[in-house]
Design brief:
alpha/beta; 2 domains; 5-stranded parallel beta sheet; 5-stranded mixed beta sheet; binds S-adenosyl-L-homocysteine
């Protein structure tokens, strides 16, 4: 990733594309993608962005396949401080397990507080995976919920287990991001073991894979079904898993052959 200084005050727009479809990317983000001189992001996300707004030849695409977010964040800030008009691209919402916090962290911790003074930073929300999957399945997030990433890249798994235990114990609906990777295929199984201490086997679970993208697959299963290793093997890093609370229900509407809806009622019993 290299760049030429352009001079003047640059912009860094941290944008969220939403789950993937053109229609669920906000007009604000589309406008910023069109206006940017440079797009920065993980290769997959730049491909997603290019399917939403076709980049012109004048725009530079910086595909960072580097997994170190801090490097990507510093690169984007440096570009903007050099006078470029940068769109830093995340999928979903950029503030949910994504680049907005990585940028804030750099601004907070760099030893030179003036280093990026010439960059005007702004953050532009998108529809997060849990919201997109929930909408397909019904309204599983209709009452209190939380989101937990099962990735132990940035936090120890013991913390993940403690949070799962606390959230399930407090009867939140729980959306699991980064649920199961090739490198750590047992994460989901371990998480389910914790959830199983608090939830009935019949608890509805939504598996949303590639939501809003051409290969979208949304399934409603139960916690008990998910004990099956074959079903677990269908869950990957492109899937969000929503585990219901004790109140989450399914409803089978006669005449509607799209399958059951899942919802969590708005009120909670005394
Ligand atoms: N900023 C993103 C989340 C990044 S973490 C957002 O707000 O949606 C990456 C995780 O998000 C994936 O492992 C998966 O759990 C989830 N995810 C992102 N896009 C998804 C999609 N289109 N369908 C299903 N899950 C998705």
């Amino acid at each position: 990733m290299t760049s030429e200084p352009r001079g003047g005050r640059g912009r860094l727009a941290i944008v969220g594309l939403g789950p993937g479809a053109v229609g669920t990317c906000t007009p604000d983000v589309r406008t910023l993608l069109v206006a940017a001189t440079d797009w920065v992001g993980y290769g997959t996300y730049l491909d997603l962005a290019a399917a939403i707004v076709e980049p012109t030849r004048a725009q530079s695409l910086h595909r960072s396949n580097n997994r170190v977010e801090a490097d990507r964040a510093r690169f984007a800030l440096d570009l903007a401080a050099d006078g470029h008009d940068v769109a830093l691209v995340s999928s979903g919402d950029p503030g949910v397990f994504a680049m907005a916090a990585a940028i804030m962290e750099q601004l907070d911790t760099d030893p030179d507080p003036h280093r990026w003074a010439a960059a005007e930073v702004s953050i532009h929300p998108g529809i997060s995976a849990a919201q997109a999957a929930a909408a397909r399945a019904g309204a599983p997030l209709g009452h209190d919920f939380c989101v937990i990433s099962l990735s132990d890249n940035l936090k120890p798994f013991s913390i993940i287990e403690r949070r799962l235990d606390a959230a399930a114990g407090a009867d939140f609906v729980i959306a699991l991001y980064n649920p199961r990777s090739r490198h750590r295929p047992d994460q989901l199984d371990r998480a389910l073991a914790v959830l199983g201490r608090h939830r009935a086997p019949a608890t509805p679970v939504v598996l949303g894979r590639d939501v809003g993208r051409p290969d979208e697959q949304v399934r409603v299963v139960t916690l008990d079904d998910l004990a099956n290793q074959r079903l677990q093997a269908e869950v990957d890093m492109r899937t969000v898993v929503i585990v219901g609370s004790s109140q989450t229900r399914t409803v089978d509407v006669p005449g509607d052959d799209r399958g059951v809806w899942v919802y969590t009622p708005r009120s909670y019993p005394d």
